[in-house]
Amino acid sequence: MKLIIAIIKPFKLEEVKAALAEINVEGMTVTEVKGFGRQKGHTEIYRGSEYTVDFLPKVKLEVATTDALAPRAVEAIVKAAKTGKIGDGKVFVLPVEEAIRIRTDERGEAAI
């Protein structure tokens, strides 16, 4: 089993969700987060004063999948989230040792 963590631009969330639904990925956790990567934020002007915005709004997606489905899920996320501009985000894939569905006590891939 794999845990896929993706940090994407907020306006790309619906496209990513639809792309994952097309390949039958069910269930995800979405968190609104702030952060920066190589772009290190940007400057803006508000009422004539310039200030730096260090942390940019992002969306963090967490999806647990089977080993077989993980590469397709990663590809779907990358394709749907890509704009080709700086700040598109990152995808991380981690191994999952165990998954347990609390309601039924199912374990392993059956719990996903």
Task: Offer a few descriptive terms.
Nitrogen regulatory protein P-II, alpha+beta, N-reg_PII_CS, phosphoprotein, N-reg_PII-like_a/b, single chain, Alpha-Beta Plaits, 112 residues, enzyme regulator activity
What would your notes on this structure say?
A hairpin with a 2-residue loop joins strand 3 and strand 4 (49-53). This protein is of the alpha+beta class. The chain has 2 helices and 6 strands. The longest helix has 12 residues, at 70-81. The model has no long low-confidence stretch (mean pLDDT 91). Helix 1 (13-22) packs antiparallel against helix 2 (70-81). The strands form 2 sheets. It has a 4-stranded antiparallel β-sheet with strand order 2-5-1-6, covered by helices on one side. Strands 3-4 form a two-stranded antiparallel sheet. The chain starts with a strand and ends in a 17-residue tail after the last strand. InterPro entries: N-reg_PII, N-reg_PII-like_a/b, N-reg_PII/ATP_PRibTrfase_C, N-reg_PII_CS, N-reg_PII_urydylation_site. The modification O-UMP-tyrosine is found at residue 51. It holds the Pfam family P-II. One of its GO terms (biological process) is regulation of nitrogen utilization.
